[in-house]
Amino acid sequence: MSEENQEQITLVDEDGAEQLYNVLFTFQSDDYGKSYILIYPAGAGEDEEVDIQAYALPADDDPANPSGGELQLIESDEEWDMIESVLNTFLDDGSIDPDAAKENHDHH
Predict the structure, then answer these.
(1) Which of 14, 31, 54, 94 has the highest local Cβ count within 10 Å?
(2) pTM assigned to the model
(3) Which one, of 60, 54, 69, 48, lies nearest residue 21 by Cα?
(4) In the beta sheet, which residues pair with residue 28?
(5) What is the pLDDT of residue 70?
(6) Backbone angles phi, psi at 22, to 5 degrees
(7) Would you say the C-alpha torsion 49, 67, 80, 91 has a positive or negative sign?
(8) Distance between CA 64 and CA 69 in Å, rounded?
(9) What is the rounded CA–CA span in Å between residue 6 and residue 43?
């Protein structure tokens, strides 16, 4: 996987520090009428285990070109189950080493 065309976004953590994340992928769910973005910390090694985080994009955001609007936490277990299913399908198609990725179920 080449780093040059990897989309990246910056998030500000609870301490106000900026963290750079690579965009794993975005997708739209017709069931929930939302778009979702899955990200993982930039700078992780190829075979390093990473925390994959998922957020809902703001309703007016374009999933193909996220504007950096406020990402929304995913709060329902049904949405998490759906995201896990999409993620597992994505990992199973061989584009990412499934051993190098683990889900971050960070319910705030």
Answers:
(1) 54
(2) 0.71
(3) 54
(4) 35
(5) 81
(6) -85, 145
(7) negative
(8) 13
(9) 12
